[in-house]
Amino acid sequence: MHLSFLLLCLALGGWVNCAAGNEWCYTGCEHTPAHWGSISGSHCEGDRQSPIDIVTSSVETDHDLLDFTFINFTSRNVIKSIINNGHTAKCILAENEVEVSGGGLNGTYSAIQFHFHWGDTEHHPGSEHTIDGHRYPMEMHIVSLKKGLTVQQATEDSAGIAVLGFFINGTEDGMSEPWETLTTYLTDNKDTEVDMNATISIDDLIGNVNLTKFFRYMGSLTTPNCNEAVVWTVFQEPININKDLIQQFPGKTGLINVYRPTQDLNDRQVYASPATDLPPSHWCYDDHCDYGPSKWNLLPQSQCDKQHQSPINIDTNNVVMDEHLDDFTFEKFDDKHAIRYITNTGHTVKCVLKEGVVEISGGGLEHVYSTLQFHFHWGSTSDNSEGSEHTVDSHRYPMEMHIVNKRKDLTLDEAVKHPDGLAVLGFFIEAADMTKSNSGSESPETNPTSNPTSDVDVWKKLTNYLSSIQNISSEIEVTEEISIDDLIGDVNRAAYYRYKGSLTTPSCNEAVVWTVFKESIKVDKNMIMMFPTQTGYHDVFRPAQPVNSRTIYTTASASSAPAPILLPLLLAFLCAFFTQSHL
Length: 583
Fold this sequence. Notes:
Number of helices: 11
Number of strands: 34
Oligomer: single chain
Largest sheet: 13 strands, mixed
């Protein structure tokens, strides 16, 4: 059989049996994915099926997974045609010109085609593999056969086929010319092969993805007959393209939700290349895992048992006034479109900002800092829940928001190694009608001259996203108009505490200049309760750590001076006035 005909049978990560090509589908026919096992000759109910969910906490590093060698990935003449085969859009490569080796592969593989998987709309992603439960909008598979094997031999060999999987992420960035050109060839004419005259290389499509960071496991083709013959490589970093280009795939082909659900891992192990970013180990806030807060110091590369850890209890009787703690300059804190997406990390809810938009300076900081993200710490669903990380005179607030900023002149890897590489702004959060602590006594007064409130509508917009990120590692693009200024409200940002500390999660790097604002953000109690109820996890805060030899500084604001000090000063002034008037 001529190879070009065979290529028409290779689709969606699977080597499709041509005689049965019309017997299966993703939706709308008898043999949907749940019934692929009943197709004649099918292996779809085997023990090493693909795709899978890659749980990063269970991945092991394999130091033999070194760099790949790619032949003719830069050539702009190897993509010969594109076809809509009724299951995907597939690009056919020139025969025997594109090769892959290295990367822990046992031999050299000839790349013959690449194709795509997608959902239906931007709110329904369609990658086949998932990372910690997170599904990307789209996935690209580059399919290669082991050199020296026939097609039949390759499908019968446990490592006869090598597939390179690339996640594709939708962004607001400008159009990518190679992807924009590729999408012009998409068509809804089934089984019509269109010659590609454009000069696009595979590298042009991959872009700046770090090809040294990848996962590896043994699996199968992801379409019937689901032959268990694939060495899978799934790259950690996604290809970023404009989300409108992703919508061209379902829009122009008429195909939607063309992906197989994830399959059971069974007894397989997923490995990662040495360069891949993995969580150090599974950690948690309570004792339901191996590494609760008291054991964080046992984690690899941990600094959690060092002397300058965070959070701390701020004893207002021992703070030192510092006149150098002046006003901050907040750049683009009023930008209502600075938040890119909101995600459930499994430990918190995190809002990730657009790169290079928001900045802070001043406030006694010696550098300009770029704002990366903000996240939250909270307690339980009880009415008297307390979940802030920092405490003031041993009083714990219901919630705390941390705005994380990186020194603008450093990379993130460099910043976590510098004692002032990061600057974190901490804001206490409490219910709008809360005036007393749980014991009935007044909570520590941070600034008696104001009663800050936040924008109720903006907090409602933010908390409305929580129902969409209930799965760990899930994320959703923020399209509502929400600024950091709106969330903070009219909190007095000139009154704050300052000390040197650490990150409050592993690896607890002592790289943070901490600012903890005295006034709290007032938020509707029902919205505070949405964080534990929607995410399903509670008490996500680290206990206060010893202050040791550190000094906690405070702004030299008269309004923050305790009343017991102000009263004697006032009496002394009055006595002096009356004495002078009677001389």
